[in-house]
Structures are given as C-alpha cells and as structure tokens.
Specification:
about 280 residues, mainly alpha, Farnesyl Diphosphate Synthase, two-stranded parallel ribbon
Length: about 280
Amino acid sequence: MRKQSLLHTHAKSFSWAGFFLKKTIFQQCSMLYDFCRTVDDIVDDHSDLKIKKINFIHFKKQFLQKKYTSKIIKNIWYLLIKENISKKIILDLFDGVQSDLKSKHIIHDKKNLYIYCYRVAGTVGLMMAKILQVKDRDSLLGAIDLGIAMQLTNIARDVNEDKKNGRYYIRHNFNEIKKIIFKAELFYESAFVACKKIPLRSRLAILIARRVYRQIGRKILQKNNIYNYDKSGKIYVNNFEKLVQTIFSLFDLFFLFFKQEKHSHMKLEHNLINTKIKLNERI
C-alpha cells in the first residue's frame, strides 16, 4: 500500500494520475509535492500576516541550513542531490510564494504574471520532469510550460477566492478569465510535444494530469458569463470526468508517437520570464 502524503490529501488530480506511475517515482513526486504544499500552506494559513511571515522565514531558513530533523526538508534535499536539481529552482519557488505574503498582491501585466506562474508552478513542473529523468532541454522547457498552464488554470478558477485574500492576478471579468484560459491552452499545447521525451513508463501519468487539469478551464468556459461563474463556486473535475480524460489520454499516448518534434512555440513568453530569471541556469 502506498504511503499517504499531502499529495493524496490535497492534489486529487495528481493523485489520480500518480496511480499510473512506478511506485518509487510516485514516492519521489510525493516528496516534492509535500514540500511545495508545506510552503503554500504557510502563506495560505488564516493566521495574522506577521505570523505567516515569521513562519515562512523560519521554514526557508530550515531549508537553507539543511535542517534534516524536518522530514520534509530532508526529503527535498535528497531529491535535489539525487536528481541534480539546482537549488535556484527552490529559491525561485520561495520568491513566488513570498510575493503573496502581503495584504494586497496585484499583478499589472503579462510579464509579471508569467514570472509569477513560473515561480510558483513552472518550478514544480521542472523539478517533476527531472525526477522523471527528462534530459532534453526543450522538453524541460515544456515541463515548465505545463506548470505555468496549470497555474493559469488555477488563477482562472480562483478569482473570487484570491480576491478575498487580497490577490489580484487578473480582473474579475469573464472576458479576462477567458483570455487566461486561452493562454493556458497554448501552454498545454507546448507541453504536449515535450511529453514525448518522458520515459514511457511515466508518460501516461503526465498526459492524464495534463488532460484532467486542462478540463477545469474548459468547464469554466461553459459558464459563459460572470454571473454563472460566481454562482458555481469552486470548479473541479469529478471522478467520472477524470475517467473520461484518462481514456482520452490513452489516445494522446498513441498519437504522441507520430507527433513531430519541434521547439517550444512559447519563446516570447520564455523571453519575458528570462528578463528576470535565467531559465538556462535552472535547466
């Protein structure tokens, strides 16, 4: 029986996809997720902002000082060393999450939106790809794209919840929400070809995670207007829908064999991120 982790508790879509991973790979992905979720939970906790800042600084210091008395810290350092993952990627993640540690976080333009999405989610996609033994540079960029796509989906889904927490990544406007979902679609497409370089044993799991999360955005589009969107609450993919997307992912796995490889078509977006973060130093 697989050990229960935060992955089971919080990330239902990934836990569903993780069923198709080799047990040792799933355990390593769980270690990564536990670390990332712990960082997120510090910021999303309902404590006073000053307390959250103290807890965040304390946890970051534990990481930098390699406090192996914390199992989560010990596990993440094990992954960084074992998979030759740059510490800069973790520091990028800290920077992204820390930007939410303020009474109001407003993102004014697409460059800063992409940088934020890279930091809080593209980093996770990149580290996940390294755990899955992806070596190709363009495919690692594709893994970043998948993380960004998923974060854009999160932003499109959580506009009302984010607003309550003083986070304004996009305007509370259905046209803006649609634009973000359409942009996420481009990142999902970029990530698809990158999946070709994932070892076959793990490829299906990532294709399923991609399909399931992408479906959230498509369900949002079905709301048609801001009134229906606001009324719907948190939009998610139920188990039957996950099963359907799993079947579609089997077709993706087949068609991927015939898909022509090409460099990422998100070069403009990568260049915007590169104005602040040198992606080549992370890959």
